[in-house]
Specification:
Elements: E1 4-12, E2 15-23, H1 28-36, H2 53-63, E3 69-76, H3 82-99, E4 103-107, H4 113-126, E5 134-138, H5 146-158, H6 160-166, E6 170-175
Parallel strand pairs: 1-4, 3-6, 4-5
Antiparallel strand pairs: 1-2, 2-3
Length: 177
């Protein structure tokens, strides 16, 4: 399956949640257009944490109708989130390699991007496949599809009615040990 994967995360209490939005290449252009259409005047990006609840409801409902599937990777954390993030990234990269994904885009965390890169390269070396997975970090303002992962991770982590809003696009939830 040829897909592009877009990753963002949310920390909720004792859980670290990584959402991976999976998009077929043929849907990318229209998906980006539809996502940019959700921006309010003056906005450069959609970041769910910065929205008020009425706008979150509108955005979550719109995102749940888009041609995208999301996998959720979840791990319990205690004090530090970074080890949980890296274990989730390792697992998702292995899954993407198995799926034959071609491109992985992660929301940039500036100087912490190097930790992700080390984890990704280690996973690729352990699981060589014919598919060449290209990966990069982008600022979320420059890649609209990252907003899907951000919104889904936020809603999933919030639970209840928020989680139900994004259920139509959540394909799988993986508890990473």
């Amino acid at each position: 399956m040829t897909v592009h994967a877009f990753v963002d995360e949310s920390r909720r209490g004792s859980h670290y949640i990584v959402a991976v939005a999976l998009v077929e290449p043929g849907n990318l252009r229209l998906l980006r257009r539809d996502l940019r259409g959700l921006l309010r005047p003056g906005q450069r990006e959609l970041h769910f944490n910065d929205q008020k609840d009425p706008q979150r409801r509108v955005l979550a409902d719109a995102i749940a109708r888009l041609p995208v599937e999301v996998r959720i990777y979840r791990r319990c954390i205690d004090r530090y989130a970074e080890p949980a993030r890296q274990v989730c990234i390792d697992r998702l990269v292995c899954d993407l390699l198995t799926d034959g994904a071609h491109r992985l885009v992660l929301d940039s965390r500036a100087q912490l991007d190097a930790k992700d890169e080390a984890t990704i390269w280690a996973a690729i070396r352990r699981h060589p496949h014919r598919t060449r997975l290209v990966f990069e970090h982008f600022d979320s303002a420059s890649e609209a599809v990252l907003w899907v992962a951000d919104a889904t991770a936020w809603c999933f982590g919030a639970g209840g009615a928020w989680r139900r809003r994004v259920d139509p696009i959540v394909r799988e939830v993986i508890d990473v040990t």
